[in-house]
């Protein structure tokens, strides 16, 4: 419904949303949450089959977006590990490989993915939610933060590798559930009694992936970040955007995360 505009840029692919639902059988020692929780079972296999993904972690759960044309590959790749369902008229219906085969051919091994630089600004972030019925009470503040409080972004391609701070605000409303990521200073502008966070109230630091806008045809970007963090049992929320990817990790673990990712880059040279 958006009117055509020279200022509106739309990716040419149509994307489908995958929601990974736990069956409660994780190993007792598994404490990592967010994208690292599904790094080995979902992210890595899709990368190996050259499937490009967009990742959206929220306060409640994680969503993976895959291109519609890649659905046969996705089904064949994940069917051995997961029970897969599709939604039809509000009901969940089992999906089998035969339903989407359409002459499926196993893809050729993908070339080694591009190793993108990472940046870690000093900004501290909060991952929050609000009760839907209290949303009107903060609507004016949300509009101000989203559209009026920040100066226009500069040339992203020439961004410094040593960012002191970064402007980042994420708001998602999915099936009635609200998830917000904002920096700690912006949080102070909102009524504290309406913002809900985990009992620990922990703060998060960000790793931004990409020195210039990433390509939608690339694959393995999420896996390159998620797999090392999963191996170290470090939780991470991951948010893909039109230009860059962003991983949020607990503040106390940022030094270890940077070291792990630097080692990954050095070993890939």
From TrEMBL:
The protein, known as: Cytosolic arginine sensor for mTORC1 subunit 1
Signal sequence annotation: none
Keywords (A to Z) from UniProt: Cytoplasm, Phosphoprotein, Ubl conjugation
One Pfam match: CASTOR1_ACT-like
Function text: Functions as an intracellular arginine sensor within the amino acid-sensing branch of the TORC1 signaling pathway. As a homodimer or a heterodimer with CASTOR2, binds and inhibits the GATOR subcomplex GATOR2 and thereby mTORC1. Binding of arginine to CASTOR1 allosterically disrupts the interaction of CASTOR1-containing dimers with GATOR2 which can in turn activate mTORC1 and the TORC1 signaling pathway.
Domain annotation CASTOR ACT: ranges: 11-78, 201-262
Subunit comment: Forms homodimers and heterodimers with CASTOR2. Interacts with the GATOR2 complex which is composed of MIOS, SEC13, SEH1L, WDR24 and WDR59; the interaction is negatively regulated by arginine. Interacts with TM4SF5; the interaction is positively regulated by leucine and is negatively regulated by arginine.
Main location: cytoplasm
Gene assigned in the entry: Castor1
UniProt entry tagged with the keyword Ubl conjugation: yes
Annotated family: Belongs to the GATS family.
Bilayer-crossing regions: none
């Amino acid at each position: 419904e958006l009117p055509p505009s020279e200022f509106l840029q739309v990716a040419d692919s149509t994307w489908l949303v995958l929601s990974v639902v736990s069956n409660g059988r994780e190993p007792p020692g598994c404490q990592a949450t967010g994208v690292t929780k599904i790094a080995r079972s979902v992210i890595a296999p899709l990368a190996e089959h050259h499937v490009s993904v967009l990742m959206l972690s929220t306060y409640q759960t994680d969503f993976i977006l895959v291109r519609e044309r890649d659905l046969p590959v996705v089904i064949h790749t994940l069917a051995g590990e997961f029970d897969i369902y599709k939604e039809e008229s509000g009901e969940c219906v089992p999906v089998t490989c035969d339903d989407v085969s359409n002459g499926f051919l196993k893809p050729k091994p993908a070339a080694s993915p591009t190793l993108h630089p990472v940046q870690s600004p000093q900004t501290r972030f909060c991952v929050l939610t609000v009760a839907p019925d209290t949303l009107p009470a903060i609507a004016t503040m949300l509009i101000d933060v989203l559209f009026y409080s920040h100066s226009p972004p500069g040339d992203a391609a020439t961004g410094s590798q040593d960012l002191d701070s970064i402007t980042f605000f994420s708001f998602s409303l999915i099936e009635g559930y609200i998830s917000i990521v904002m920096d700690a200073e912006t949080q102070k502008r909102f009524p504290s009694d309406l913002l809900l966070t985990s009992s620990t109230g922990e703060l998060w630091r960000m790793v931004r992936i990409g020195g210039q806008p990433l390509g939608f045809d690339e694959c393995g970007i999420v896996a390159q970040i998620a797999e090392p963090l999963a191996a170290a049992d470090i939780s991470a929320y991951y948010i893909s955007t039109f230009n860059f990817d962003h991983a949020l990790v607990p503040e106390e673990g940022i030094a270890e995360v940077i070291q792990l990712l630097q080692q990954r880059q050095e070993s890939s040279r």
